[in-house]
Structure formats: structure tokens, C-alpha cells
Design goal:
Elements: H1 15-22, H2 28-34, E1 37-40, E2 43-46, H3 49-64, H4 72-79, H5 83-94, H6 98-116, H7 121-127, H8 133-144, H9 148-154, H10 166-176, E3 189-196, E4 199-205, H11 212-218, H12 221-229, E5 239-242, E6 255-262, E7 274-278, E8 281-288, H13 296-309, E9 317-319, E10 326-328, E11 338-345
Antiparallel strand pairs: 1-2, 3-8, 4-6, 4-7, 5-6, 5-10, 8-11, 9-11, 10-11
Helix pairs in contact: 2-10, 3-4, 3-5, 4-5
């Protein structure tokens, strides 16, 4: 098996008004954070740090114990609040009840197991604490639009539930409202050149986006990422990418998200996605140092700055932007932030 490394209230009715105003501001994230507001799942809501921390702790508990049967009482005990209060705050912040969140996460884990292993459906159902084969089949079909048996046989792309960690969203916006007291300290950035074979790229294009945050205003990022994660034939993990002009189509964005598959891939293309061919090429990979996830914005910025200033000709290469997109891997602190650009030897 190939291992993949695996990103309220009454404010809703003011969403369009606020959106129109902040589009005219140069520093949207700063404006939001000044007012103590954050956007999550397309909804604007008031930030309460204590609630965010409480929900973050519940998220961590759920993810660490997802193979067990988790009760609301357990979650409440873990964060030292009443079950009623925990359920209310979780639903307020996540727009899903704890039980719905757990159900979606269990179904996604079950789908990945059916995709990557040849386990019996009844075993997968019971391992994820569904009461019966029939109950699991109904829940799976309702969520993904096909039965577990059909999915295990055909493994088409489906919309997996890949939730964001709420504290990451909160921390990012809060830090946007502060200015750095000093310049970033010098960080080590490791550089290597890797070979990529001829391949195809399944991607979801945006409209005008030039970076991740603009892209997420144009498409449902969570939905796109979940579908990309579900593609069994993927050669590598999903990536964010900047498309050169020769790989863009009229009226579409520079920034997109996608996943690479083999050159002979003839499987299904998810609705609304495109597939293009990429030639064999070399990629120069830039990898920052491991970092604390709380500081990911600064670390990403440090590596991006290093890439923009780097002269590949010092090592016998030059940029070859037309060959392939510039890519960024999902920022994960334990491995450092990673970007790559196509090069050719000189």
C-alpha cells in the first residue's frame, strides 16, 4: 500500500455586507481580526478564545480516539464542562454537532480503509462502531452517493471529510492583527533536485486566485481537498499549485489544487475538475526546518522568501516554469514547509 502524508450566530446575515467592505481593504485579515471575527466554513462568526480552545481540545480527543466509541460524556469530562454546554459550543463553532462530526470522520476513515485494503465490509463497519452492516451501508451511501461494496470495487473520487483544526484558523487570524516586532531570524532551507516522470495532473481551477486564501474564497477548499485525498491512484499527496500561463485556460486562476496520477491514468475525473498532461522534468525542492504549528505563517513566509531570492544557476540549473506548476505541500510542522519549482540543467 502507498502511504500518503496526510491545511455564528447573527453574523451570518451580515456576511455579504462585510464581504463587500473588506474586499476594498488592503489587509482583509487584519480588518477581520481587529473586530474579533473569523471566517470558518464560509460563515462569519465572533471569536471567543475560550470556546475555540475548548473545541480544539475536543477535536484532538476525537481524532486520537476515533477507533473507539466516543460519548458526549467522555468529551465533556475531557474538557471539564457539562455535556450540554460542550454540545452547544461545539455546534456553534464547528457548525456540526459532535456526533455528526464523529460520524463523518468515521465514514471517511472507513472509506480510506475500503480504498486501500481488501477488508470485509462487515469488519470495517464493526471496527468503526456501526451497529450493523445495513446501518453502515445506509450511512455510507447517504454520505458518498454509493454503497461501500461499489466503492471498494471501483474506488471513484468521493468527497472525504477532511476537517480543519479550529485552533489553527483562530491562531492564524489573531496573528494577522499583530505586527512582527522584529525581522524573521535566519532559517535553514534545504534544497534538492528530484526527477518527476511524465504524468497527469487532476486539478480544480479557480477563477482569479493568485494564492491559497483567494482560492478558498472562490471554491470550497475543504471539499476540493477531500476529493483529491480520495483518489486512490494518486502518485503523491495533494498539493497547492501555481500554474504557468501555458497551463491555464481562459477565465481561470493562477492558483489551483491538484494531485498527480500516472500518465496512463484512465479513471474517473471528478465533476468540475480538469486533467492535463505534464512532461518528465526535474523539480528543485525547498524544505524549511521543522517548526511549531502555531508559527506556520512565518515559516511558510521564510521559505517563500528563500525561493524568490534563490539563483539556481549557481548549481547548474535554471528555472523552467513552462514545464510544470510551482507546487506547495500542505504545511505540516514536523517536516517543515515544502515548495518545489521545475528546473532544467544548463
Amino acid at each position: 500500500m502507498k502511504e500518503k502524508i496526510n491545511f455564528v450566530s447573527d453574523y451570518v446575515k451580515y456576511y455579504n455586507i462585510i464581504k463587500m467592505v473588506i474586499r476594498r481593504a488592503k489587509k482583509v485579515k487584519n480588518l477581520l481580526s481587529w473586530f474579533g471575527i473569523m471566517v470558518y466554513g464560509g460563515v462569519i462568526m465572533k471569536i471567543n478564545r475560550d470556546k475555540v480552545l475548548m473545541v480544539s481540545q475536543m477535536q484532538e480527543y476525537i481524532h486520537h480516539n476515533i477507533r473507539k466509541k466516543i460519548s458526549l460524556k467522555e468529551l465533556a469530562t475531557h474538557v471539564n464542562y457539562s455535556p450540554w454546554y460542550c454540545a452547544r459550543v461545539f455546534s456553534e463553532v464547528m457548525h456540526k454537532s459532535p456526533f455528526e462530526y464523529i460520524r463523518l470522520l468515521k465514514l471517511t476513515n472507513a472509506a480510506l480503509r475500503l480504498r486501500d485494503y481488501e477488508d470485509k465490509i462487515i469488519d470495517v463497519a464493526f471496527d468503526h462502531h456501526f451497529a450493523s452492516h445495513e446501518g453502515f451501508t445506509r450511512a455510507f451511501a447517504k454520505e458518498f452517493g454509493l454503497t461501500p461494496r461499489k466503492y471498494a470495487k471501483e474506488t471513484p473520487p468521493i468527497n472525504l471529510f477532511i476537517p480543519n483544526r479550529i485552533y489553527d484558523q483562530y491562531h492564524e487570524l489573531m496573528k494577522e492583527g499583530k505586527k512582527l516586532a522584529k525581522e524573521l531570524t535566519t532559517k535553514a532551507v534545504f534544497v534538492q533536485v528530484v526527477e518527476r516522470p511524465a504524468r497527469k495532473l487532476i486539478l480544480k481551477r479557480g477563477i482569479k486566485a493568485s494564492h491559497y486564501f483567494e482560492y478558498c474564497e472562490e471554491v470550497d477548499c475543504d471539499n476540493v481537498w477531500g476529493i483529491l485525498e480520495s483518489i486512490k491512484e494518486a502518485l503523491y499527496e495533494p498539493v497547492g499549485l501555481w500554474l504557468p500561463k501555458n497551463l491555464r485556460t481562459k477565465g481561470t486562476s493562477e492558483y489551483a489544487q491538484g494531485v498527480e496520477v500516472s500518465i496512463d491514468y484512465d479513471g474517473k475525473i471528478p465533476q468540475g475538475f480538469d486533467i492535463i498532461e505534464l512532461p518528465a522534468c526535474k523539480l528543485m525542492v525547498f524544505q524549511g526546518e521543522p517548526y511549531n504549528d502555531d508559527n506556520f505563517r512565518e515559516e511558510v513566509g521564510a521559505v517563500m522568501d528563500a525561493v524568490s531570492r534563490y539563483n539556481p544557476e549557481s548549481f547548474g540549473f535554471k528555472w523552467a516554469d513552462k514545464l510544470a506548476p510551482r507546487i506547495q505541500l500542505r504545511p505540516l510542522g514536523y517536516r517543515g514547509y515544502i515548495e518545489a519549482k521545475p528546473v532544467v540543467s544548463i
